[in-house]
Amino acid sequence: MNPPSPPRETPTPADNPLGLEGIEYVEYATARPQALGQVLERLGFSPVARHRSREVLLYRQGTMNVVVNAHAGALPPAEAPTLAALALRVRDAAAAHARCLALGAWDAPVTVAPMELHVPAIHGVGASRIYFVDRWRDFSIYDVDFVAIPGVERHPPALAGLHWFGIVQYIGAGRSAEWIHFYRELLGLRLLAPDTPLGALPGGRVLQSPDARWHLQLVEPTGADAGEGEAERLHRVAFGTPDVAAAVQTLAARGVEFLDMPQAGAARGALTRTWLDGVMFELVRATGA
Amino acid sequence: MHAADFGMDTITLAGPLAAKLAAVRAAGFTQIMLSARDLVGHPAGWRAAVAEVQASGLRVTGFQVLRDFEGLAGHLHDYKVDIAKAMLEMCAALRCRVLLACSSTSQHASGEPEAIARDLRKLALLALPHGIRVAYEGLSWGRHVSEFPAAWAAVRRADAPNLGLGIDSYHILATQTPLAPLAEVDVTRIHLVQLADFLWHEVRTPEERMTTARTMRVFPGEGVHSQALAQLVLALDRMGYRGDYSFEVFNDDYLQLPLETVAARARRAAVWLAEDVLGRATPPAGGPRLRELG
Q1: Which CATH superfamily is A23-148 part of?
Q2: What is the mean pLDDT of each run of 10 residues along chain A (289 residues)?
Q3: Are B228 and B195 in contact (CB under 8 A)?
Q4: Cα nearest neighbour of B120 on chain A
Q5: CA of A105 to nearest chain B CA: how many angstroms apart?
Q6: Which ipTM score applies to this complex?
Q7: Which of B78, B122, B188 to mutate: most A Cβ within 10 Å?
């Protein structure tokens, strides 16, 4: 593929109304945190910190943070891990949140324990949330809410140059225009041309963040009865890597299995097999982050 | 006939929700338009009402009605957003895909096209994650938007993919709005068509229109504007409208008749529209042949 190159100039406020500057973390919810943790470790993540008050672990590699949330709120989380939240770095979290509500986003109330950070959120697709984080320059949100796991490297390097490439969202048939509107309106994402080749699988529409650091791919069901009865949801994350074949080799050596890909797509991307009733990951050829 | 194209509305029928659902089904309809009151007035609560609707097997044509949403400012706007969210939650629970919002009658509402469009765009965004489309309808006694061309202008200005028009024949007949501007409307943005006639020849003032609309509507084919109503349905059909038609018949007399009597009248209206107006039972030219040539 021709990875979309980052813009040479800083986006103007009109292009980037929330001041997006990348993904702070991606959150999974699951009642089987250890099982998911093992999968993440195979992919090169290490557990680095534990939440002060809840059953929540922080995994990290390179610039990527993954939160595994096993905390039972009103209801216990489902057994199978689900992509529960996307936390975005923004210029001003309160302003970003207020702007989204004014435009018609649904507020997602957050419950915090004393001395914990209040990270504002809106509802995304299905039961997922979009968090807005602005405390990432001077200190990290994890310094407040998390306790480092003793004796582990707090900033483990990334395998094979892995970094966030984006998120794949499954949507209902005929819903592309609506979800494109949702993300443009609220986050200022921009729509890439329909034929932009990204990753191993063709299809879907791809939106790019105004800072060009991450992408969101919207995929409608294909085939007559595909997706029947399934809910719209965030389906998987995609890691960028400068060399897909090398990344596949590195990860395969750690026990990650990949699906067979058509030759044409193999250089552009790869898909892992599914773990734990539905968790899978995608590799996409991309530089940067 | 294509009975599946037409549906009844609970506001036409007296009695509890379960009786309405049963009567509509028994008359051969497969869909029904619901009001928020049908749910919240249920003795076992609105969730029980949702379960009752789902158990009935009837598809929910649409959910009504969000009133006076657009053009408000400050605390009035915030209040209406809360109302809209509560209605959207019920609509979503019904797995209903259309929320009806009618043009504001409030003297507190701004008539600024920009303000109206901004609020409709916001309403559409609130509905979007739930997979709900908003049908914006110009009430014939609306304060700033009272006819479908003005409603369409507002929808176009708001420019959200899940925002479209609700067309109600009653209002078009009441204000004697010409049908020609329908040609300007993108048919994929007509999210609902409601049909009703009435028994007076004219309703001149907004007050008269409102009173008639709320007490003396009748089913298509029963009133004195059958020809104009048929022209509207034919115009919609010609422009490619293939969505639902719902009978929006508020009638005080029907509220004191047995449900099966009223449902039978609705059934007669559906047959009139399908057979006499649209001719849907007639095989179209290019239909089946005894033997294909060549």
Answers
A1: 2,3-Dihydroxybiphenyl 1,2-Dioxygenase, domain 1 (3.10.180.10)
A2: 49 86 96 96 97 93 96 81 96 97 95 84 96 88 91 95 96 96 98 80 88 94 76 95 95 94 78 93 85
A3: no
A4: A104
A5: 6
A6: 0.91
A7: B122
